[in-house]
Structures are given as structure tokens and as C-alpha cells.
Design brief:
The protein is mainly alpha-helical and 239 residues long. It has 2 domains: 12-87, Arc Repressor Mutant, subunit A (Orthogonal Bundle), CATH 1.10.10; 98-238, GntR ligand-binding domain-like (Four Helix Bundle (Hemerythrin (Met), subunit A)), CATH 1.20.120.530. The chain is 72% helix and 3% strand. It has 12 helices and 2 strands, in the order αααββααααααααα. It has helices spanning 12-25, 38-45, 49-61, 78-81, 84-91, 100-124, 127-143, 149-167, 170-178, 180-194, 196-211, 215-238, and strands at 65-68, 72-75. It has a two-stranded antiparallel ribbon with strand order 1-2. A hairpin with a 3-residue loop joins strand 1 and strand 2 (72-75). Helix 6 runs antiparallel to helix 12 (215-238) and helix 10 (180-194) crosses helix 11. The radius of gyration is 21 Å and the shape is elongated. The two termini are 25 Å apart. The model has no long low-confidence stretch (mean pLDDT 90). This is FadR family transcriptional regulator.
């Protein structure tokens, strides 16, 4: 990066923090790596050393770097020692900008959250819940020809969030909302990878399993889907 490209409303510090966040969470820099000095980065990016210094302080508060006096600045083991600011940094990046390790962690979280919701809803659902889910699936199908992939991704996200809402576990819904931005990026990839027909069929299969009271079956369908998605991402990265 030879010089910081100005973006309206963003300072050089904002741009520095954004770039370093992307590089760290994207896997360019691994936990334990010693980062270039403030002087080196300032020269590379064409910004003041004081800006880089302030940016590193913010990155440290985000749990992404560790500043060791007289030693240097190192990438933190953020998956073990991170905080809510680390999570915020992750969810504000596009899914394509995340390393495989971070993508796996996010999808594991989704599996835990939705898996719990599927199991609870399978035991507690009403006939109205099943009708509601089928109506949501029909609405997505009806809008398919007139919607772009990002709009469809939002609709699929809302369908899965509805599982948490209907399960009555409000805290699960809050977690889903927290992961909204990065989830949309994953859904866009998913729809491009598998196609709309396959994705809609999955919604119908989930609904049928819930109607049958088979929460474990719904969980396993979700787990199999997550595993296959990750395998395809890995194959794509190796090409």
C-alpha cells in the first residue's frame, strides 16, 4: 500500500486501523508475528508516525495486537484473548476478508446458536410456527426473480433468525443480530455456491424436520451444511 487512499469521512488513522485489521483477520499476519515498526509502516503508507502509533493503540484495545515495550508490536492470539471489540472487528469485515480460522469460528458459533434453537423449537413449536416458516419460504421463492443476491441473502438470514425468535430464546436472537453483517457475506457466498433452488429446498427440509419434532435431525442437517460449505471454501482457496 503506497500511500493511504482518502475516503470521505475517514481519517488516516481510521484507514490504517482498517487495513491492519483486514491483514490480521485475513491471515496475512499470524498470531505471534512481529509487525513492522511504526516508522516502517508510516513510510510505507505515507502517513505520520504519530498516526501509526495511535492506530496501534486502538488495535491493542481491539485485542488484535500486543504492544511490548522495547521489543515491538506483535499480533495477539485474538481467538483466545480477544474481547467484544475483537468480535466487532470481525463482524464488520466481509466474509471473503476473513481467514479460514476465523470463518470456522464464526460458523461454529452459528451452529451452536441455531442448533440450540432448532432443538428447542422442535419440541415447542405450534402449528402456527410451521405455517409461518413455510410462508417465509414461499415469500423468498416469490421474490427470487426480482431480487439481487444480497437481498436474497438478507431474507435467508431473517428466516434462520426466525428460528431463534420462535424458539423463545431471546439471547440467541441477540447473538444472531450481532453477527448480521458477516452472516450476510456468508449467505451471499452460499447462494452463489449452491444456487437458490438448493437453498430453498434446505429451508423446506428444516421446516419438515421441525414439524416432525426432529430437532436432532435439523441440527445434523445444519452441521452437514456448514461442513460442506467450509470444504468448498477450502477447495476454492487452493485453486
Amino acid at each position: 500500500m503506497n500511500g493511504v487512499k482518502k475516503t470521505p469521512g475517514l481519517t488516516n488513522k481510521d484507514l490504517f486501523v482498517r487495513k491492519m485489521t483486514k491483514d490480521i483477520l485475513g491471515g496475512k499476519w499470524k498470531p505471534g508475528d512481529r509487525l513492522p515498526s511504526e516508522r516502517e509502516l508510516a513510510a510505507e503508507m505515507g502517513i505520520e508516525k504519530t498516526v501509526v502509533h495511535s492506530g496501534f493503540e486502538q488495535l491493542a484495545a481491539m485485542g488484535l495486537v500486543e504492544i511490548k515495550p522495547k521489543s515491538g508490536i506483535y499480533v495477539a492470539d485474538y481467538m483466545k484473548t480477544g474481547n467484544i471489540e475483537t468480535l466487532n472487528a470481525i463482524v464488520h469485515l466481509n466474509g471473503d476478508e476473513l481467514s479460514r480460522e476465523v470463518a470456522v469460528a464464526i460458523l461454529d458459533l452459528r451452529l451452536a446458536i441455531e442448533g440450540m434453537a432448532f432443538r428447542d423449537l422442535a419440541l415447542s413449536h405450534s402449528a402456527e410456527d410451521i405455517t409461518h416458516l413455510r410462508a417465509m419460504t414461499a415469500a423468498i421463492r416469490a421474490r427470487a426473480q426480482h431480487s439481487g443476491v444480497e437481498e436474497l441473502a438478507e431474507l435467508f438470514f431473517r428466516w434462520h433468525r426466525e428460528i431463534c425468535i420462535l424458539s423463545g430464546k431471546s439471547i440467541l436472537t441477540l447473538f444472531m443480530n450481532t453477527m448480521h453483517d458477516v452472516s450476510i457475506a456468508f449467505w451471499v457466498n452460499y447462494l452463489r455456491m449452491y444456487g437458490l433452488t438448493f437453498a430453498l429446498d434446505r429451508l423446506e427440509r428444516f421446516t419438515a424436520l421441525l414439524e416432525a419434532g426432529d430437532g436432532e435431525g435439523a441440527y445434523q442437517l445444519l452441521a452437514t451444511g456448514v461442513a460442506d460449505y467450509l470444504a468448498r471454501l477450502e477447495e476454492k482457496a487452493e485453486r
